[in-house]
Amino acid sequence: MKxxxxxxxxxxxxxxxMTTATVEESVELALLGGVTAVQLREKTASSREFYNTxxxxxxxxxxxxxxxxxxxxxxxxxxxxADGAHIGQRDLPPDAAxxxxxxxxxxxxxxxxxxxxxxxxxxGADYLGVGAMYATNTKTDAAVVSxxxxxxxxxxxxxxxxxxxxxxxxxxxxFLGTGVGGIxxxxxxxxxxDITAAAREIKELFVKVKARLTNL
Length: 216
Hints:
- This protein has helices at about 25-30, 45-65, 75-80, 95-100, 115-120, 145-155, 185-190, 195-215; strands spanning about 10, 35-40, 70, 85, 105-110, 125-130, 160-165, 180-185.
- With about 220 residues, the chain is α/β, with parallel strands linked by helices.
- The protein has one domain: Aldolase class I (TIM Barrel).
- Strand 5 (about 105-110), helix 5 and strand 6 form a beta-alpha-beta unit.
- Helix 1 packs parallel to helix 2 (about 45-65).
- The mean pLDDT is about 95.
């Protein structure tokens, strides 16, 4: 049975940006600040390094009752019994990924346009990561998605949408009225001196934005 996921504050790791000595330390500090989902994304790590890190992070997310999603690496997701995997447009399609990791796992797909969103939903994605919404140093090759395109994606699918790319306390209010289910944050949390405080501030801000949506 697939886990129920609160996508409100979705942390994406990046060991090159973190202010802590280890990935697991930055993850735990972020969880203490209210992070609701964690994606382990370690692009430069070897398979063994990724696996060992994932094992340690899995213990922490399990302790806090928060789902762990593995970026790209289906083998690592299976090996550590993560809650799911997040794949991009150059990875296996969602239905093929599903056949590997199983029906009880969450599959997220990165999309940057309406056609990709429709195809990801058709092939069984559980949620969509939409972006990059703003230019970001964490993924310099990502094209910026317009708010017009985000609106089209929201109208075309019932899947949860998690926006990513340049998400911080200055840009979050811009998502009022867009119907997104969560924000994916990298440097605005893990690159901060006080990770817990940064996560808490961003979470509170996004919760206020969502509350305004329900009261309109």
